């Protein structure tokens, strides 16, 4: 079967938008994304400085600000230090509350992979962008000053992709997040959207990269010569605030369905504890595979294997398809099958099979995909979800599951960040 798995880009026809606001009315700007095959991290490519250079930053939904290692080899004539007495400095996370040197804003920088904290300074430099080419206007180059964290040492880069110079923080409540700064600088709505079609060849621009948009759409891509996102319907669900993780994007998942079966889940796991911040569901594209708390994961796998059993019975009656055969697991997955025994079929063949996984929100349903398997190695297809342990901080982390061959459809996720201006 084709290697298609559940991730942000595989909803058929319907996009999902997470919102506390209204639709944008102005076209925004767009950057290329790329995904590294070894670290499985997504990087945004930003043109900054004078002379202009491309800097790659690892995308971090929970980061408070963009930062990079600018000591040792980085030169820009447009770089400026942010003063300790400035309003921007007051919005940063600082190791000290006093201004030892009023000309320097000393700040703390967080590595989202290692969770380590390093020291740095707040600086400002020019970022050059082009408006979204799909807004039916000529893309216009434009430059703005953007505040960055400047890491004091290169140690803070540990665990990040080797091609990256730092992190693009997109935290929802921070005035210094990349989304918030672009919104203020370019006078766009405080919105960003990710389209992770890194394995899909875009016939319009002959690229295989994804996109990250700031300020709203239009979100138009050409899939095998067809404008498949032009008329897409957006489905909305509110964002939740986790008092212990205000920068991260939590959503209100009420239940999960696997092939139409609602999983038996302890409702306490789906709620965010207002005191500890434990529980709930968040979206994080740094996590390659969606993780589920152990009891949820066990229920998920049970529902999936029962569906496979029903499918095998139906196959025996039809006498047209082989039995789906389980094989040895391939880490980090626990349930794997011989891919040669899995035959792609329409959803009406067996009991009008629904899309394999659905996240049910209070007023909407996100049907992820008609596929829930990933090719773990040649000849082996595994259920592409991971056991997150018995006591995780977050019960469900919806990750950017990766695919190894072109998908048959794409989905775009749009986020409305918290209003700050």
TrEMBL record:
Residues 1-21 form the signal peptide. The keyword Ribonucleoprotein does not apply. One of its GO terms (biological process) is proteolysis. The keyword Signal applies. Keywords: Signal. Transmembrane segments: none annotated. The active site is at 60, 284. Residues 42-421 form the Peptidase A1 domain. GO terms for molecular function: aspartic-type endopeptidase activity. Belongs to the peptidase A1 family. This is Peptidase A1 domain-containing protein.
